[in-house]
């Protein structure tokens, strides 16, 4: 096993190619150990060069609504009325602490996701 840090895009592509070859090797083999270490190295490179930002709270709510096949009317109890749901989802009103608690419980979203700052529309 000849391992090195991934420093360039070429190194990254080579690491991905090697991972493809050894991915399904039996557990406990030398190649399996190599795959475990290579996965850590690839992940570190991807975190630095291909990091994906978390969605803002409103986008997170919309994504979860889509995943759960919910409509705006399904959030009336959590946000305090049809108008409030519309105002929040259209970025006219900020989430309150009570709304965040309710949405976290209803949508199973992290409170940390919901308390992040976001811009209101004008």
Description:
InterPro entries: Antitox_HigA, Cro/C1-type_HTH, Lambda_DNA-bd_dom_sf. This is Transcriptional regulator. This protein is mainly alpha-helical. It has 7 helices and no strands. The radius of gyration is 22 Å and the shape is elongated. The relative contact order is 0.11. The mean pLDDT is 93. It starts with 8 loop residues before the first helix and ends in a 7-residue tail after the last helix. Helix 1 packs antiparallel against helix 2. The chain has 2 domains: 41 residues; 59 residues, lambda repressor-like DNA-binding domains (434 Repressor (Amino-terminal Domain)), CATH 1.10.260.
What's the short version?
This protein is mainly α and 122 residues long. It has 2 domains: 41 residues; 59 residues, Orthogonal Bundle (434 Repressor (Amino-terminal Domain)). The mean pLDDT is 93.
Number of helices, where a helix is a run of at least 4 consecutive DSSP H or I residues: 7
Q: What number of structural domains do the residues give?
A: 2
According to CATH, the fold-level topology of the largest domain is: 434 Repressor (Amino-terminal Domain)
Extract low-pLDDT stretches.
none
What share of residues is helical?
Answer: 55-70%
Order of helices and strands: HHHHHHH
Domain HTH cro/C1-type: 61-114
Organism: Dyadobacter sandarakinus
Protein name: Transcriptional regulator
């Amino acid at each position: 096993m000849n391992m090195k840090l991934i420093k360039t895009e070429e190194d990254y592509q080579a690491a991905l190619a090697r991972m493809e070859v050894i991915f399904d090797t039996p557990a406990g083999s030398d190649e399996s150990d190599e795959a475990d270490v290579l996965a850590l190295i690839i992940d570190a490179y991807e975190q630095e060069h291909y990091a994906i930002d978390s969605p803002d709270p409103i986008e997170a709510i919309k994504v979860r609504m889509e995943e759960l096949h919910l409509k705006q009317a399904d959030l009336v109890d959590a946000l305090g009325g049809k108008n409030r749901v519309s105002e929040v989802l259209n970025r006219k009103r900020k989430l309150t602490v009570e709304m965040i608690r309710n949405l976290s419980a209803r949508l199973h979203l992290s409170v940390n996701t919901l308390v992040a700052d976001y811009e209101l529309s004008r």
